[in-house]
Amino acid sequence: VNAEIIAVGSELLTPRRIDTNSLYLTQKLNERGIEVAGKSVVGDDRERLANEIRRARKSSGLIVMTGGLGPTLDDVSREAAADALGLELDFHQEIVDAIEARFRRRGRAMSENNRRQGYILRGAEILPNANGTAPGQWLRDDTGILVLLPGPPRELKPMFEGQCLPRLAQIASPYQYYTLSLRVTGLPESELDQRIAPIYSEEKRVATTILASPGEIQIHLRARAATLEEARKIAEFLGEKVEAELGSNVFTREDESMEQVIARLYRGRGMTLAAAESCTGGLLAERITSVPGSSEYFLGGFVTYTEAAKNAWLGVRESTLRQHGAVSKQAAEEMARAVRAKANASVGVSTTGVAGPGGGTEQTPVGTVFIGVADEKSVEVAEIHVGGERDLVRQWAVQKAFDLIRRKAL
Ligand code: AMP
Ligand code: MG
Angle formed by the axes of helices 77-85 and 46-59, to 10°? Predict the structure, then answer.
């Protein structure tokens, strides 16, 4: 079966609240081999909601609604579902008794409007709510399954796991799914896809998703098979082919960030690192030290933001700064060498660039960053040009620096 999720609540149509329930539900459904074919957010409007339920029922066998089950008049999921399916709502005194008891245990009286939560679609199963007042509802008919769940995540999650997943197990797909993620850096998305599309499009049992973010692309290979073990084999076989094509641009096939990969490699090889940062202003050191145990390999760093600091603290030559500027290949080179030597580290890294929005020149426009990496034998400098805002320039610079740092330990 395919599923659809309808998130109900006018607050979800404002910038103040986002629908997170559907993300949770999608993950749980996918784990059980149920694809989410669509989702929508609908305000607290009975007629719109009823129309949405009717539409969804035509195309999907499982509709999961969240929210709109509260006691107040603006919560209309029950009524809208009744309208859409042409069903009566039956009043269940035992539900209201349970809600009343819940209030009494807290020394409070139930308000009259909580009685609204006692109405259940005729033919639906009641899903008791251990963490709130509104019970969920599970309705199965010839058209499919309709589930009504409360909006608060702390009520929805236990109800879905405890009461919906066991019911779904009976109708779930015959497939098991396994997802392998490869994380890639140093390639544009278009080039990456061009190179691996011939590989993944051959394998019909795997759904491939490519997700790009600054300085990193994730490739998700989701394989399906009769057993989990078989699905894992299919995903891994394809993963190996993709990895062979992309080589060391793949920085991990685990759920690891670049800084975690660096931690693993540098600890494994007993290598150490020091940083001299200009345009990244400490961002690089911040991310490196966000990994527990980073003191084993990260010795320290400088934030040398002005030319004077570059000269005084790192010994970048005045002639270099005068002739080439602080944002130059030469400055990056001297910074990386100097910080490595001062810290007595295996590797020294440096960043110097124009993050913008001001400060660009014709020769070094905004977005230009030089990244130096030095080891005891040599120093190399990469030059990148990032189109985008200050924050993005800085992120890209760190990501590129991480890639160079990582490669020193391969
Ligand atoms: P309701 O069941 O509509 O009364 O929802 C109660 C509360 O649950 C709302 O005020 C939200 O804070 C939260 N909520 C409702 N729907 C969602 C959703 N889709 N994702 C996350 N939180 C939600
Ligand atoms: Mg609501």
Answer: 50
Closest CA to 78 of 163, 8, 159, 165: 8
Q: Which two tokens stand for residue 131?
A: 């963490």
Q: Of all residues in the chain, what percent carry a pLDDT higher than 90?
A: 93
Instruction: Give the residue among 287, 290, 291 at the shortest CA–CA distance from 264.
Output: 291
How far is ligand 2, taken at its centre, from the CA of residue 9, in Å? 4
Res. 177: pLDDT tops 90: no
Other residues' Cβ atoms within 10 Å of the Cβ of residue 106: 7
pLDDT per residue as tens digits for the range 331-374: 999 999 999 999 999 999 999 999 999 999 999 999 999 999 99
CA dist 405 and 410 (Å) reads 9
DSSP characters for 138-180?
A: EEE-SS-EEEEE-SSHHHHHHHIIIIIHHHHHTT--S-EEEEE
Mean pLDDT, residues 97-125: 95
Here the tokens at position 142 are 């010839």
Handedness of CA 116, 135, 137, 39 (dihedral sign): positive
Q: Of the bound ligands, which one is closest to the alpha carbon of residue 66?
A: 1
Q: Is the CB of 66 under 6 A from ligand 1?
A: yes
CB 285 near ligand 1, within 6 Å: no
Among 5, 6, 17, name the best residue to mutate to test ligand 1's pocket (greatest count of ligand atoms within 8 A of Cβ). 17
pLDDT score, position 333: 98
- Nearest CA to 357 among 386, 399, 397? 386
Nearest CA to ligand 1 atom 13: 152
- b (16+ CB within 10 A) / e for 363-384: ebebbbbbbbbbbeeebbbbeb
Q: Is the pLDDT of residue 155 over 80?
A: yes
Joined tokens for residue 279: 């345009």
- Alpha-carbon span 142 to 153, nearest angstrom: 30
Q: Is 150 in the pocket of ligand 1 (CB under 6 A)?
A: yes
Cα–ligand 2 centroid distance for 161 (angstroms): 21
Q: Give me the mean pLDDT over the 280-300 stretch.
A: 98
Per-residue model confidence (pLDDT) at position 290: 98
What's the whole-model pTM score?
0.71
Asked if residue 174 has pLDDT above 80, the reply is no
Position 172 scores a pLDDT of 59
